[in-house]
Amino acid sequence: MLDLWPEMTKLTFLSNEELSKLNQPEIVNRILTNVNTMEKIAFWWSSELLDGATLQKEIGGSYLKLYTQIYGLPKIDALNRSGEQLLKQNPLAGTLKEYFEKHQSHEVNPENLP
Fold first, then answer.
1. Cα distances (angstroms) measured from residue 65 to each of 23, 24, 47
2. I need a surface site. Which of 11, 12, 74, 96 has the fewest CB within 10 A?
């Protein structure tokens, strides 16, 4: 997993300011990098190069949040696609999202106990 860590660190959320500038080339590139990296990570996982439980622990929550952010993006004129359409073109990313959702930790946070 250490050899693959540099790829995983390419995943970055878009700030509110960046979300208002979706058609700027640097933002379009970040979106594409995120989607391509998510698909690459999912490919490694589906090829059993990455352990699902370890991957869940390391990036599961962040991956789900980023997937949701990208999925909700409106049509990006420069790509002629919405975030949902981009993700549908990268089906393994969605398969990994489903795995993470299925295996989310439902542990009780002690701070929320009475």
1. 21, 22, 23
2. 74
pLDDT tens track for 55-112? 999 899 999 999 999 999 999 999 999 999 999 999 999 999 999 999 986 544 445 4
CB 11 within 8 A of CB 62: yes
**Distance of alpha carbon 4 from alpha carbon 19, whole angstroms:** 28
Domain count, the chain: 1
Going by pLDDT thresholds of 50, 70 and 90, the confidence category of residue 2 is: low
Residue 18 placed within a domain: no
In a domain, 99, yes or no: yes
Asked if residue 97 is part of any domain, the answer here is yes
**Would you say residue 2 lies in a domain?**
no
Sign of the C-alpha dihedral, residues 54, 58, 64, 66?
negative
Nearest to 70 by CA among 84, 49, 54, 91: 84
At residue 28, what is the residue type? V
